[in-house]
Amino acid sequence: MNVRQLTISRRKSQSEGEELERYKDMPLRTCISCRRVTAKHNLVRLVVTPAGFVEIDRTKKKVGRGAYLCPDKNCWKDGLKSKKLERAFKIKLSSDGLKALLQYVEVVNDGNMKREKI
What we know:
Number of domains: 1
Largest sheet: 3 strands, antiparallel
Order of helices and strands: EEEEEEEHHH
Number of helices: 3
Number of strands: 7
Shape: globular
Strand content: 25-35%
Distance between the termini: 49 Å
Helix content: 25-40%
CATH superfamily: YlxR-like
CATH class: Alpha Beta
């Protein structure tokens, strides 16, 4: 029987100074709004598809340029108002797209993670 031992490395988060325990195989990502580094599965991934649509990627495996946001209302509003999301995607979001993302903020706070096409 081969027992695999995971090594734990400690890493300081730049924004809050808190320690993160990271297992060797756990990918870390940064929220584009608050710059907090956390595990990939704790963040919401948005992706620009090759067709030019912004979608919420629940599988975190869709093809296209991706960006991550915390599932926190303040991070979403700050990311949209200060155009951090537009900079990350290198595109200009339409007013309809912004409205749809702001509506999704309310869904995130309810805990319902559904996929929407914007």
